[in-house]
Amino acid sequence: MSDAKFFQRGKIQELRLELNSDKKDRNYTRKKQTLKKIVANMTMGNDMSSLHPDVIACMSIPVLEVKKMVYLFLINYAKAKPEMAYEAIQTFRRDVEDPNPLIRALAIRTMGYIHVDKVTSCLIQPLRHCMRDQDPYVRKTAAVCVAKLFMQDRHLVENAGFIDLLREMLVDSNPSVVANAVAALTEISERSDHIQLQLNMSIASKLVTALNECSEWGQTYILESLMFVVPQEPGDAEMLAERIAPRLQHANSAVVLTAVKVIVYLMNYMSREEDIHSMCKKLSPPLVTLLSSGPEVQYVGLRNILLVIQKHPEILKNDIKIFFCKYNDPIYVKMAKLEIMFRLASEHNVEQVLSELKEYATEVDVDFVRKAVRSIGRLAVKIESTAQRCVEALLELIQTKVNYVVQESIVVIKDIFRKYPNQYESIIGVLCENLDNLDEPEAKAAMIWIIGQYADRIENSDELLDDFLYTFLEETVEVQLALLTATVKLFIKRPTAGQDLVPKVLKWATEEVDNPDLRDRGYIYWRLLSTDVAAAKAVVLSEKPHISTETDNMDPVLLEELLLHIASLSAIYHKAPTTFIPHCKPRFLIPSPALRRQNYNAGRTLQHQDSYSSLHNSAQYQQSQSNNMRSQRFDGDDSGNGGLDEFVSSPKQPQHQRLSYHEQSFEQVAEASIGNQEYYEQKINAENPYRTDTAAVGGSQANKGGGVDLMSFDL
């Protein structure tokens, strides 16, 4: 029978009478029904707290279902009415010694949920006893209870020795107990300022052995804990990754993504390219399989894939067809697939990708079409051999006269002109035919840039700019800046055509606008033109830096951090967790002799905070900094004082030293990477003003010689 009938507003007096009824109640059926009504009313938001004496009286009933509902009642109201929990303490003590392991586990779990000081103090001894209980269900419940207790009173957990008990549970004979102990230790490590979980290869091997017998969520917990393993010897990472690889075939997407995260992490400690290539091959099929799930799981998978292929693009280079959009894909999935298609595009598959993008550009969803058109332009910039075909495709789209398609096409064509100067200027006439369709600031600014850049080739460029100038004061700053520069370019290239426009624009820019950037640029142009036209020409018409799609790549430091957070919100937001989770402890790659010699500069090597604090005070570090500054000062050419000038002009900021891993020992690399700790902490604190944990001030304490008290334990 359905329990929906219980979700009706009940009267307190009637419920009390039913609970205290003297009628014969075989198997406590009536009390169960009444308690279900009370719980249903609690769920609907009705206040049932006045029934607490009557509900607590039911705690003595030796029926698990009754106890569950009574404990749920206590958890719900104990925080607001602590005296209610006081009355139940004796019953809790009896229940944690009950012969039934389910009741023992239920009692210890409920006490962990009740955030009342007196209940917490009474929890210590029973919890310690339950962590050594003969029944594995009780032990695994007690392990999670320690993590809950840590959130209430971390000092109590540390002083009562629960951390050591959890460590002992890592070698428990029951895999579920091991999984819960690992989950508790990981949670405590993430939340504590001075406890850092570190697992050695021996414990890691035992944890991997327990994977096969764990539930899917237990496997996720164990895999997550392997992120705290730091391979020290060559071959450690390879062996561990091979043993984890079967998890990639799991049906649960959380297990698959967590296994991917661990393997990508371990690849940083692999020395041979063949092993890394082999692992990349094994990562492809599970990532592709994720795209056969529902749209929500697909999106999560796509956002994680986008991170992985930026570090290891070879993983999915032959599977680009998997990312072609389907007609019934949600828009957020299509957008994510488009970005991955662009990143995987190469000279071998560009024809297929371009054909798909042209098809997408005729869809009905405006945002999707815009991104498709922009991707065609980015493809031209990325792969030179296909630029001609991309330009032709953009011209075809412009002929459709669809407003937003035309405007997006003009925006990306500007980038193509910059990438390939003097190659595709023949299409300018087609662009000028569509000036009336421009109503977006970015498209207007792009078209104005094209007119100014090629003012000497467009016969009526002065008339076109004059048309734009009619609404100069009403335009956005982006368009105003473009108009100002384009007009000056016109005057320099064709003085006769631009002599009437320049004074007018400069007067507007310097006297009638409030934006300081626009006003300052106007003054600079005015003074250049009035003092030295040749200098103005050299400045305004200087060679533009070449553009490339590398600017779309994520910052390497951020990418390294996000790869340590695959299968989390950070991987979906593409933001470091410290930017949106207060007091979050950042993750780093810990240096070890097995850490792969990469081409990243050593100042960007990521580490754990305890490594920063300990090495930052060392005399070796101070000597290393002195040597680096000395070498930077005299590393110039032999002529004059080039090296000295370079040193003098360098800014006083935390140094991101570019030390090659091939040229430095492990200790030197570690020391050099420490130098950015204060800078990194300042960056984190600036992005996250709510972060006030001791890790943020660890650097200053270390500098004073006090250090940070770390309870980092190595298992």
TrEMBL record:
Task: Kindly list the GO CC terms recorded for this protein.
Answer: endomembrane system; membrane coat
Name the residue ranges with Polar residues bias: 650-659
Taking every annotated instance into account, which residue ranges of this chain make up the domain Clathrin/coatomer adaptor adaptin-like N-terminal?
Answer: 12-531
GO annotation, biological process: intracellular protein transport; vesicle-mediated transport
Q: Which domain of life is it from?
A: Eukaryota
Q: Subcellular location, in the record's words?
A: Endomembrane system
Which InterPro entries does its entry note?
Answer: AP_beta, AP_complex_bsu_1_2_4, ARM-like, ARM-type_fold, Armadillo, Clathrin/coatomer_adapt-like_N
Tell me one GO molecular function of this protein: clathrin binding
List the Pfam families.
Adaptin_N (PF01602)
UniProt keywords (A-Z) are:
Membrane, Protein transport, Transport
Where do the record's region annotations for Disordered lie?
Answer: 612-664
Residue ranges under compositional bias (Low complexity)?
Answer: 617-631
Q: What is its main location?
A: membrane
From the record, give the transmembrane residue ranges: none
Family under the similarity heading: Belongs to the adaptor complexes large subunit family.
Q: Mind telling me which PANTHER family this protein's record contains?
A: ADAPTOR COMPLEX SUBUNIT BETA FAMILY MEMBER
Report the function annotation for this chain: Adaptins are components of the adaptor complexes which link clathrin to receptors in coated vesicles. Clathrin-associated protein complexes are believed to interact with the cytoplasmic tails of membrane proteins, leading to their selection and concentration.
Q: What is this protein called?
A: AP complex subunit beta
Naturally occurring in which organism (per UniProt): Linnemannia gamsii
Q: Which gene encodes it?
A: AP2B1
